[in-house]
């Protein structure tokens, strides 16, 4: 299953996103070892796109509970403060993303681990800006999905006309009295 998932991502995503996704898995697996948290390695590996992962796992006859775990991990990885308290696959996928994109817990990984992962799945010379652009390209057509997660910051950075939804404004503009 993992081999076919790798082929699928390789065939459908850019090198930037393929290597990012591969590093995310590596960081997640290493974080699990360091935290002594056991997760289903294949489910963790398949965490590359919520709806795509659902279809892929369904084609293998994977159970709904495990599919929901993977879907939730992907759906919540841009919503800080929640995934870390959920199932290992969900918490570790977020930990992998946080390490690869934000450098959170960078100091927990040895230089040997960092070198091994980045040599096998290299970062582009301008990864920080490249990944922000890739995030923007993926969400610019659906800005409504950024409410309450970090992708609103990406849109605000790239689109001067973007106005993020404001939770307090939504409350004040509701039809309720008071």
Question: What report would you give on this structure?
Answer:
This protein is mainly α and 178 residues long. Helix content is 63%, strand content 0%. It has ten helices and no strands. The chain has helices at 2-12, 15-35, 41-45, 50-59, 64-76, 88-102, 111-120, 127-139, 151-158, 167-172. The longest helix has 21 residues, at 15-35. The chain is globular. The N and C termini lie far apart (55 Å). The model has no long low-confidence stretch (mean pLDDT 93).
Instruction: Note the quaternary state here.
Output: single chain
The class by helix and strand makeup works out as mainly alpha
- The averaged pLDDT comes out at 93
Shape descriptor reads globular
- What does the radius of gyration come to? 17 Å
Distance between the termini: 55 Å
Low-confidence stretches: none
- Can you write the helix and strand succession as a string? HHHHHHHHHH
Helix tally?
Answer: 10
Give the amount of beta strand, in percent. Answer: under 5%
Q: Compute the number of strand runs.
A: 0
Relative helix content: 55-70%
């Amino acid at each position: 299953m993992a081999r076919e998932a790798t082929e699928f991502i390789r065939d459908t995503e850019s090198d930037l996103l393929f290597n990012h996704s591969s590093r995310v898995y590596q960081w997640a697996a290493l974080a699990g070892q360091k935290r002594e948290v056991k997760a289903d390695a294949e489910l963790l590996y398949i965490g590359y796109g919520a709806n795509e992962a659902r279809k892929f796992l369904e084609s293998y006859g994977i159970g709904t509970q495990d599919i929901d775990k993977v879907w939730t991990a992907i759906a919540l990885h841009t919503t800080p403060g929640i995934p870390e308290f959920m199932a290992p696959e969900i918490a570790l996928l977020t930990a992998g993303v946080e390490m690869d994109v934000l450098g959170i817990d960078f100091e927990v990984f040895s230089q040997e681990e960092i070198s091994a992962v980045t040599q096998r799945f290299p970062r582009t010379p301008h990864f920080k800006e490249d990944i922000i652009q890739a995030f923007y390209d993926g969400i610019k057509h659906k800005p409504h999905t950024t409410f309450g997660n970090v992708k609103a910051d990406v849109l605000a950075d790239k689109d001067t006309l973007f106005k993020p939804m404001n939770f307090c404004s939504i409350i004040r503009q509701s039809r309720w009295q008071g």
